[in-house]
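User: Hello! My lab partner asked me to get a predicted holo structure for this protein. The small molecule is NAI, SMILES included with the sequence. Please write out the structure tokens.
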Amino acid sequence: MSFTTISVIGLGYIGLPTAAVFASRGKKVIGVDINSHAVDTINRGNIHIVEPELGDVVREAVQQGNLRATTRPEAADAFLIAVPTPFVDDHQPDLRYVQAAALAIAPVLKAGDLVILESTSPVGATEQMTQWLADARPDLRFPQPGNDGDVFIAYCPERVLPGKVMIELLENDRVIGGITPACSARASELYRIFLQGECVETNARTAEMCKLTENSFRDVNIAFANELSLICAEQGIDVWELIALANRHPRVNILQPGPGVGGHCIAVDPWFIVAQNPQQARLIRTAREVNDAKPGWVLDRVKQSLAECLTASGKRASDITIACFGLAFKPNIDDLRESPAMTVAQRIAEWHSGSTWVVEPHIAELPSRFADRATLVATPEALQHADILVMLVDHAQFRAIDGSQVTQPWIVDTKGVWR
Ligand SMILES: NC(=O)C1=CN([C@@H]2O[C@H](COP(=O)(O)OP(=O)(O)OC[C@H]3O[C@@H](n4cnc5c(N)ncnc54)[C@H](O)[C@@H]3O)[C@@H](O)[C@H]2O)C=CC1
Ligand SMILES: CC(=O)N[C@@H]1[C@@H](OP(=O)(O)OP(=O)(O)OC[C@H]2O[C@@H](n3ccc(=O)[nH]c3=O)[C@H](O)[C@@H]2O)O[C@H](C(=O)O)[C@@H](O)[C@@H]1O
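Assistant: Hello! Below are the structure tokens for the protein in complex with NAI.
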């Protein structure tokens, strides 16, 4: 049976592009979100998040009548759940949004429907979601490992890179983790509507662990680079040169150090493994701790630079201007969520008695959390008048700065731009 109507629950950074791409292939898509601002914005053909090329696809899908948003789930042939999965307390996964989404679709489910969990989830979450659905709909048979049911259920993680979502959504291979092989087959059929990459089928638990593994792998590799940056600072070695040299080895590929790890996935997902396997996941936990400690280390370097600057210049701290370059969680985007650069800049602004300037070409005003403790300035002003420069995000605009314009002796460069 083909899919006529597809429903996507949660219209954020993952759900909205997914809904829009299905709609662009002529499917009737019902997007569901509890945020009525998002729903109204989408129904006007606009978008409430920033992602290159997404706006055009959504506008066209809405204009053609293929994409419609609502706050209440309606009947469909397939449901994709893409709601947040943060952690709470001591890094325990919080599945309450998944539970709420499952309970919201339960009343409209019918035999033959497919339910896919896309949210990054701890191992066992899809079985848990199946149980919530089964409790809510005792009239339907739900699948269990080894036994098919009336409904198909699968875990299919999303692995798109923010900033390249509209390309990677189509091109990346997809891991398809059905509760049973029949569930996997049905889920693959759905993604083949738009997928150019391959559907690789497995079971739900392996698919859940696969997503967590991918992000933990990157976190551990970045932690290795960040640890090297601390060691090199002690040894008087340029960490950027060191990594470039080591990466000339045919089997070495070290990532880049920075002010810490941001975004709301890589800094979160490894904790799901640690929470379930505290005894075994020692390296994964340590990597998280190394990366989380990096903003504090950067702040210490800024304090050290200020002390040197005061001694050399004879000025008072209140006369010194510190300029922070970049606030986003990574280069060339405007996303400030869970940004280590933001943490560093904010902590400088709170601690420093002089002026704190922020240069961030991707935003029009500073977030309110800075209150009036920092000022957004343009690159030339910061380069000409600031006493201490702190490079936090290697945006292309910053990499393009002519080195001869950078004359300050006090520079804390977390990205190796002004080596
Ligand atoms: N943003 C990313 O780059 C990636 C995110 N993921 C995962 O995808 C999931 C979703 O992430 P994002 O899209 O970034 O989050 P988001 O916060 O941008 O969007 C989630 C949306 O779900 C809505 N929502 C919450 N509860 C709901 C409910 N009960 N019913 C309907 N809508 C509800 C929210 O209002 C929000 O609009 C998370 O598990 C995340 O870890 C996975 C890969 C990449
Ligand atoms: C394994 C992997 O590459 N996962 C991707 C990741 O997207 P995200 O944009 O969060 O990843 P990212 O580009 O590595 O950036 C994360 C953080 O790590 C930092 N970072 C990244 C690479 C590096 O060499 N050094 C470094 O410090 C970035 O500056 C940023 O603060 O997480 C996404 C997710 O799960 O949300 C996932 O879909 C993406 O494919």
